[in-house]
Amino acid sequence: MDFHSYAERKAGAAEQAVIAPLVTIEDRSSGYRLQHIGNPWTRQHFDGDFYLVDPPRELPALSLVFVQSRDGNTVVPDPATLGGGPVDFHLIYEGLSRVAADGVLAGAGTVGKTVFFSVWHPEIVALRRELGLPRHPAQVVVSRRGRIDLERSLLFNVPDVRVFLIIAPDGLRDTERAVADRPWITVVPLTNEDLADAFRRLRRDHGLSRISVVGGRTVATSLIDAGLIQDLCLTTSAQHGGQPNTPFYAGHRVPTLQLIVRKRGHGNTAIAFEHFAVSSA
């Protein structure tokens, strides 16, 4: 699929989606230093401003975004089947969680042939424009082993959008030729498994001060363990499902989550949305 057709399809689906408003259940944002963003449409549907955590010194602010089933599972072939619905998908996942992001990050296992991370609803696009940001965030991919298909993956083949490939030197050997043919792709070497150094480079050398991290759980766990995640946007559906025992964090040092805001949709089958500050154990 060419990018123009892909973008038209995504924008059409977002504009036609029925997005029921959320209701704020608990708001503890006054205890944090946060930026408030929104426009009349987002404030109506999100029930107020969306909050951004300030970037730490020398590093980008990394915000983790996940949807989970009622029983806490996040792994499923199609995340839409977890039950987040259009509110999660269009208002949060492809909406407020990345509207202010300089880049959207995913692991190599999350990057399929027809994946491109951006915002699509016209009101979210308008808010991004009001924030003075480019139409599309940069695409950031983490691949330790180089198991990616640069030739056929849409994400790597949109010349107008920057791509940053965080990859170990050994993994680069199989992709070196394809990268050389795509000057819009910048390689950020991952040396000695030092994720913090790679993100310092993204901030210092390339101006990425805010990154939305969309999965999968292996990359999310590595970033949490490295102390690089500042906050978590977590949507919980009202239905059971997903691969059992697959929470968003797969490590041995469960992070501390401190509530910033909690919201809920209408009715017994509605989603719950929670925004947490994250501290590594």
Task: List descriptors.
281 residues; alpha/beta; Dihydrofolate Reductase, subunit A; ten-stranded mixed beta sheet; two-stranded antiparallel sheet; 8 helices
How would you summarize what this structure contains?
This protein is of the alpha/beta class and 281 residues long. It has eight helices and twelve strands.
Question: In CATH, what is the class?
Answer: Alpha Beta
Shape: globular
CATH topology: Dihydrofolate Reductase, subunit A
| Largest sheet data | 10 strands, mixed
- Give the count of structural domains: 1
Model regions low in confidence, pLDDT < 50 over at least 5 residues: none
Which structural class do the helices and strands define? alpha/beta
- Considering DSSP H and I runs of 4 or more, what fraction of the residues is helical? 25-40%
Which strand-content bin applies to the residues? Answer: 25-35%
* Number of DSSP-assigned strands: 12
CATH architecture group name: 3-Layer(aba) Sandwich
By DSSP (H or I, 4+ residues per run), the number of helices equals 8
Walk me through what this model shows:
- This protein has a single domain (3-134, 209-279), classed as Dihydrofolate Reductase, subunit A.
- The longest helix is centred in the first third of the chain and has 14 residues, at 3-16.
- It has 281 residues and is an alpha/beta fold.
- It has helices at 3-16, 40-46, 85-96, 122-130, 169-172, 176-180, 195-206, 217-225, and strands at residues 23-27, 34-37, 50-53, 61-68, 103-107, 138-143, 163-167, 185-189, 210-213, 229-236, 256-264, 272-279.
- A ten-stranded mixed β-sheet has the order 1-11-12-10-4-9-5-6-7-8, with helices on both faces. A two-stranded antiparallel ribbon has the order 2-3.
- 26% of the residues lie in helices and 25% in strands.
- It contains eight helices and twelve strands.
